[in-house]
Amino acid sequence: MNMDQNVTSLDPAFARNQNATWMVNQIFNGLVQIDSALNTKPCIARTWQISDDGLVYTFNLRNDVHFHDDALFPGGKGRKVIASDFVYSFNRLIDPKVASSGTWIFSDKVKDIHNFIAINDSTFQVKLVKPFPAFIKLLTTQYCSVVPKEVVEHYGKDFRSHPIGTGPFKFKYWKEDEILVMLKNEHYWEYKDGVQLPHLDAVKVTFISDKQSAFMNFIKKDLDFFDKVDGSYRDDVLTKSGKMTRKYRGKFQLKKSPYLCTEYVGILVDTSKSIVRNSPLRLKKVRQAINYAIDKPKLIKYLRNSVGIPATSGFIPQGMPGFDSTAVKGYHYEPEKAARLLAEAGFPDGKGMPMITLSTSTTYKDMIEFIQGELNAVGIKVKVDVSPAASLRDMMSKNGVNFFRGSWIADYPDGENYLAVFYSRNKVPDGPNYTGYFNKDFDRLFEQSYYESDAEKRYLLYQKMDRMVIENGNIVPILYDQSIVMMQNNISGYVLNPLSLMILKYVKKKNR
What angle do CA 127, 424, 469 make, to 5 degrees? Predict the structure, then answer.
């Protein structure tokens, strides 16, 4: 397979982007894992118990899981994983000296290192300071993988390129920006239908950054797997309705599935900021008009060849457990309604309304220019400001832009992960509340959801919060994304999931 960017680290404590999580997921395991329907399944933890108050999680570990062989273990043989390995691995995440990008996993959930306890070799316990019903799902993230202390301490920062885990594949070789090789772990503990996993002998990753030439390698069958359909060859592969073009039909497999990512346009609404006080965007009717003015199905069809689902519900995307488009009604394309709301806000046909600036990064320029055209059509004059992704993110995290393009990708499969974006305590720079939405009723429901262990009842609270945000109009959901993968016809067993997490242990490759 190919990745268009180098892997930043193979250390789970730094699994902060897709390439890193994809590779970490092959080399490491955690207590629990997700299946294709986003259910939490046992992994190194055979079973677990949650106390009645939701504060104590007790995990019973398997006794047949070993780290990969390494010279640092006695006799070079990988030793058995025990509860104290999880104590060590989780402490690394909150250790300021490690400076893990996964600190947030436990930062507000445990008091200190004494909240991770090895009761004995096969029983591991976590004590939370307050209930967090999504905690078991949170533990499926790659940050929560188990690592061996003696190897990590030997390599220090270089553990990023000497990873030793318990996963289906073991690390063999990495020449940064060129090639990464992983071999089958012959001692892997997991079986499916009585057959030991994984099926593949090895995985080889190249790092060709030019998407067009990487795609040509796939067409020439030099690659078995290809991820994402880039703009440069999108029309070659997909029709406008999202089907495979006649040119490639039958030549390879193309699979599409929901991806927990909401593409949106955000509007800063915190009136204590001067850029908000002087902007027509401070008016709710103007924000709602913007929401009604955009033809999302047209955008998805013509700019994305029908990859994506129009976001006509809430901020929580389709594919998320508890998503219900009948419970959270968002905005459809209704330009007449947009015009009426503008007039009610005091700007009939946009008259007297100052020009507003919409900030985006280069990659999304075409999408934002489409939105600019839609808003101009109802009388809202928009100037597009294009800047590098990093500097746009920086401005968003300082509330320095009041109309911007963003996207939110799920870290774990629970709606809480999306609603946290509007919680007052997550105001910038402490958190991702980039729109400066502060609402006491919302906060109350958000905090109440932590004490609701019944998932169905919790989803009702999530829907109520989602409706509040949508009605306020500080967020303009554009689309719920979909992931696309292409595979040669001799590949089977690749299971798609809405987190777009790569799982290679079930994959089989037939000789041609």
Answer: 115
